[in-house]
Amino acid sequence: MPQIVERLRSISIMEKSKKNKLSRKVKITKLIFRKREKLEDRIVREILLVIFINGKEFVTIQCSPDKLEYLTIGFLLFQGFIKEEKDIKK
Predict the structure, then answer these.
(1) Residue-wise over 3-27: b if at least 16 C-beta within 10 A, else e?
(2) In this predicted model, what pLDDT tens digit does every residue of 34-85 receive, in sequence order?
(3) 67 lies in which domain range?
(4) Which of 6, 68, 78, 87 qualifies as a cystine partner to 82, CB 3.0-4.6 A?
């Protein structure tokens, strides 16, 4: 466990986007039985999330802009940087 604390002095996340909406409106053409219909629909928005470890860029993840802290913790847990809740400092 001391190795984890030594390696993982600081974590920061940076969202490469300014908006925090989960979806956006787009104009679409819907085809049903050879009929075209122009509509407005919503699509899920994605962002680039950059995770820094000890001040160095570690990974960039394309994801939805929701629950970024949970995503970051889960990613670091899966990668073996943290083992349990006490490894995380607020």
Answers:
(1) eeeeebeebeeeeeeeeeeeeeeee
(2) 899 999 998 888 888 888 887 888 899 998 888 888 899 899 999 988 888 7
(3) 2-87
(4) 87
